[in-house]
Design goal:
CATH architecture of the largest domain: 3-Layer(aba) Sandwich
Bound molecules: pyridoxal-5'-phosphate
CATH topology of the largest domain: Aspartate Aminotransferase, domain 2
Shape: globular
Strand order of the largest sheet: 3-9-8-7-6-4-5
Radius of gyration: 20 Å
Oligomer: single chain
Number of helices: 16
């Protein structure tokens, strides 16, 4: 019981909670804590959705698409206008637009354009890291569960060993344990903050000192795909470490809060030598279309749009929390546009049943539990989710 109480306090102290979710802490979350608090019992993430199932979902007759962490409130009006206006000149390669975009990002981050590598989404930049570091073999350290792209592909397509470090009892990356897991064979440290699929963040001061220290031993890759969902992304980001000259790569994407998942624009910020090393494995900005490049330029740091999209995301998220609470379900309070919660049935079966009702969600299995991840959609989509969920919960 003492452990449970302490865990609950830690959670309140450490979490970046949206106010409405605090009430939930009086519920039965301790149960979920209990199963994750002992690392010695740790069995790791044993199951996630297969590529085949994700493809089937994408093709199915879906009424509520809540499986890919997209932002249904985007792209912004400015982005749409720029897209249309860019069509006439789209017979030209968009060198100037992309150079301007890189300069704008660099200026905002107080760095040089040479520190910025653009990509058609951040995925291709993550993939460049897979190829570059994967060729070194060795091992990669990351939290578990986390976003699989880099760790999974390095271990699947190269001979890199994936050292999975369990999360803390409140489902955050365990930075201390991750640092301890480094050995002489470690080629890369992967940090996803906020973390996908848990939606949790780590303390930014702690993360920055972690990056400073760890990057002296091994390169650190920080995936900040969801950083825009935090109250103050600038403070929470580890860009400062790049400014200080540390060997830290920061990946960002327009796919999430900017609503560009189908337009494909992302970027990576790092030391120029690191970007040079990654260059042979990426086409960089050359894969970005003129239209998408112009749209990104028009909406980058559009505070009003970002604020509105965040507000609507929070409204839908609060609605989801209410549905789950009403049905007696626990969930991990999320700083992002998706929520992970333990389910009572087999994950695969749950996802299939939801799909049969026109709702796409994802599942995970870790800490001896089945989990469902729901992306935040339009309010109407959350209602479709509710109707389906009530039938099978
Ligand atoms: C943590 C994380 N990083 C990177 C990506 C890649 O996104 P994109 O290639 O659309 O930028 C995703 C996509 O879901 C993600 O969740």
């Amino acid at each position: 019981m003492a452990t449970r109480t302490l865990n609950r306090r830690q959670w309140i102290k450490n979490s970046t909670l949206v106010t409405g979710s605090l009430a939930f802490l009086s519920g039965s979350l301790s149960d979920a804590f209990a199963s994750s608090s002992s690392h010695s019992k740790y069995i790791g993430t044993t199951e996630t959705m297969s590529g085949e199932m994700i493809r089937r979902q994408a093709m199915a007759d879906i009424k509520a698409r809540l499986s890919a962490n997209e932002n249904p409130f985007g792209p912004s009006e400015k982005a749409k206008k720029a897209l249309i206006e860019a069509i006439d000149k789209s017979y030209q390669y968009p060198m100037k637009t992309l150079q301007t975009l890189a300069e704008k990002i660099a200026e905002y981050e107080q760095l040089k354009a040479e520190n910025v590598m653009l990509g058609a989404g951040s995925g291709p930049l993550l993939q460049a890291a897979v190829a570059y570091f994967g060729k070194m073999g060795g091992n990669l350290v990351s939290g578990d569960p986390t976003y699989g792209n880099i760790p999974q592909d390095m271990s699947e397509y190269f001979s890199t060993t994936w050292k999975k470090v369990p999360l803390t009892s409140d489902y955050k990356l365990d930075l201390d344990a991750m640092e301890k897991a480094i050995d002489e064979k470690t080629v890369l440290m992967y940090v996803c903050n906020p973390n996908n699929p848990t939606g949790t963040t780590v303390d930014s001061t702690k993360l920055k000192s972690f990056c400073e220290r760890v990057s002296k031993r091994v390169p650190v890759f920080v995936d900040e795909a969801y950083i825009d969902y935090l109250d103050n992304p600038k403070d929470a980001s580890v860009m400062e470490c790049v400014r200080k000259g540390s060997n830290v790569m920061v990946a960002r994407t327009f796919s999430k809060l900017y609503g560009f998942a189908g337009l494909r624009v992302g970027y990576m910020v790092a030391q120029t030598a690191m970007l040079e090393a990654l260059k042979p494995y990426s086409k960089g900005g050359r894969s970005i279309s003129a239209t998408s490049g112009s749209a990104a330029l028009a909406s980058y740091q559009d505070a009003e749009f970002l604020h509105e999209a965040l507000k609507k995301t929070t409204e839908s998220k609060e609605y989801l929390y209410k549905i789950l609470k009403k049905q007696g379900y626990e969930y991990i309070p999320s700083s992002t546009n998706f929520v992970l919660f333990p389910i009572k049935t087999d994950g695969k079966k749950f996802v299939e049943e939801m799909m049969n009702r026109g709702v796409s969600v994802r599942f995970w299995k870790f800490n001896d539990k089945n989990w469902c991840r729901v992306s935040i959609g339009l309010m109407d989509e959350m209602k479709v989710f509710e109707e389906a969920f009530l039938q099978i919960a």
